[in-house]
């Protein structure tokens, strides 16, 4: 770490503690808007301070009133007031208390690549440092990406693939298309940051969390704190705690792993039609083009009472279960012609109209080209990709495996 970086981190600590003058606070806010590594450091310090304070409260280890804080100052940080308390020399861990406040700092685009900003009907290239106003939209091209930084340390990341978001307020964004990741700072009890999608509303009700949302559906996995998950299709509202997950929408839940053994999870998202032809590329910048695996799971909603043929083209390998029974087992999927000729890429299962059938499709790639798709046919249906509206995702419990 350079001395300059160390100095900035020291200034961030002083910023959190309330030791900077207004000019210093403005300088640090500007640095946070332009330096992704510094933002991560800032968010980590806030999170650790909150966690230590909560642990102290739970264990009744708080500082006694007679040794209470010798310095106290209130900082305006966007949607909150951050009250920083410093104890005497015998207690050095700050306690961060977050309460609602009038926004005093801008919401900014911190990083942008092949992204457009729409403001007041005018579309122009988005650049790092651009300030977002209410109603503004960011649109990433197929290979574009960007991050939005809120004054409290909340970071939203637009992933490649045509992601489009709109800033509805200082506490709400709408995902209009594509995929979005979020790390949200601790919220006050009555001041929830929320993300609206076509299939769900997600409100933060605890400490920060991470989610992945797409236009076909929404999958959220909570790593820290809690969120309130409200599906738009009428399913019950759920409070999802740390270690839990939820999903809604049409399609299947795809869980992507950084290895070929379904152990090192990287992210999850809802997939509509499964028709992927990656060639020698990667499904996502977060994983490599080799040695990865994917597990799709959810429910089939058949239209007819009859035998269905399930087809799964999988290079390198694929396996499909329906209601716990293996329907497709294709360990040599990279030999596409041989798999087609032998019938290893398909199987028959009896489905009944109106009765959901659980499906799990496991795929892995080791090297070379890769592809994965999922089709069906029946006496009443020609062979076709299974439509998204004929699938529902698993609820997304972490660690769920094949039958």
Going by CATH, the architecture of the largest domain would be: Sandwich
Structure classification:
mainly beta
Average pLDDT level: 77
Overall number of structural domains: 3
Largest sheet: 15 strands, mixed
Strand content: over 45%
Stated plainly, the CATH topology of the largest domain is called: Jelly Rolls
Globally, the shape reads elongated
Number of helices: 4
Radius of gyration: 24 Å
Number of strands: 32
Class of the largest domain in CATH? Mainly Beta
Task: Give the oligomeric state of the chains in this entry, treating copies of one chain as homo and distinct chains as hetero.
Answer: single chain
Q: What's the end-to-end separation, in Å?
A: 48 Å
In summary, what is this structure?
By secondary structure, the chain is mostly beta strands.
């Amino acid at each position: 770490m350079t001395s300059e970086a160390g100095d900035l981190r020291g200034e961030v600590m002083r910023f959190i503690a309330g030791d900077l003058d207004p000019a210093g606070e403005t300088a640090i806010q500007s640095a946070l808007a332009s330096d992704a590594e510094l933002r991560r450091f800032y968010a980590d310090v806030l999170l650790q301070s909150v966690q230590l304070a909560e642990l102290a409260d739970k264990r009744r280890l708080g500082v006694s009133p007679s040794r209470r804080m010798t310095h106290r100052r209130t900082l305006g940080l966007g949607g909150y007031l951050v009250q920083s308390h410093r104890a005497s020399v015998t207690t050095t861990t700050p306690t961060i208390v977050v309460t609602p406040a009038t926004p005093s700092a801008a919401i900014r685009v911190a990083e942008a690549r092949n992204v457009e900003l729409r403001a007041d009907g005018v579309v122009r290239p988005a650049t790092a440092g651009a300030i977002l106003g209410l109603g503004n939209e960011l649109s990433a091209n197929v290979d574009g990406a960007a991050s939005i930084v809120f004054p409290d340390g909340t970071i939203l990341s637009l992933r490649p693939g045509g992601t489009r978001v709109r800033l509805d307020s200082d506490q709400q964004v709408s995902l209009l298309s594509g995929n979005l990741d979020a790390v949200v700072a601790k919220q006050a009890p009555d001041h929830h940051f929320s993300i609206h999608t076509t299939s769900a509303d997600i409100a933060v009700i605890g400490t920060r969390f991470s989610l992945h949302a797409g236009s076909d559906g929404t999958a959220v996995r909570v790593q820290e704190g809690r969120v309130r998950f409200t599906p738009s299709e009428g399913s019950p509202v759920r409070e999802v705690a740390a270690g839990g997950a939820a999903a809604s929408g049409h399609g299947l839940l795809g869980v992507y792993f950084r290895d070929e053994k379904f152990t090192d999870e990287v992210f999850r998202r809802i997939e509509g039609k499964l028709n992927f032809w990656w060639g020698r590329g990667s499904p996502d910048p977060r994983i490599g083009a080799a040695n990865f695996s994917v597990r799709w799971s959810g429910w089939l909603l058949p239209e007819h009472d009859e035998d269905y043929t399930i087809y799964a083209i999988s290079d390198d390998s694929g396996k499909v279960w329906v209601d716990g029974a293996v329907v497709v087992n294709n360990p040599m999927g990279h030999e596409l012609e041989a798999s087609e000729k032998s019938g290893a890429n398909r199987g028959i299962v009896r489905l009944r109209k109106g009765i959901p059938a659980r499906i799990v499709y496991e795929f892995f790639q080791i090297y070379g080209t890769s592809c994965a798709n999922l089709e069906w046919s029946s006496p009443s249906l020609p062979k076709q990709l299974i439509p998204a509206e004929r699938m529902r995702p698993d609820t997304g419990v972490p660690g769920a495996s094949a039958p």
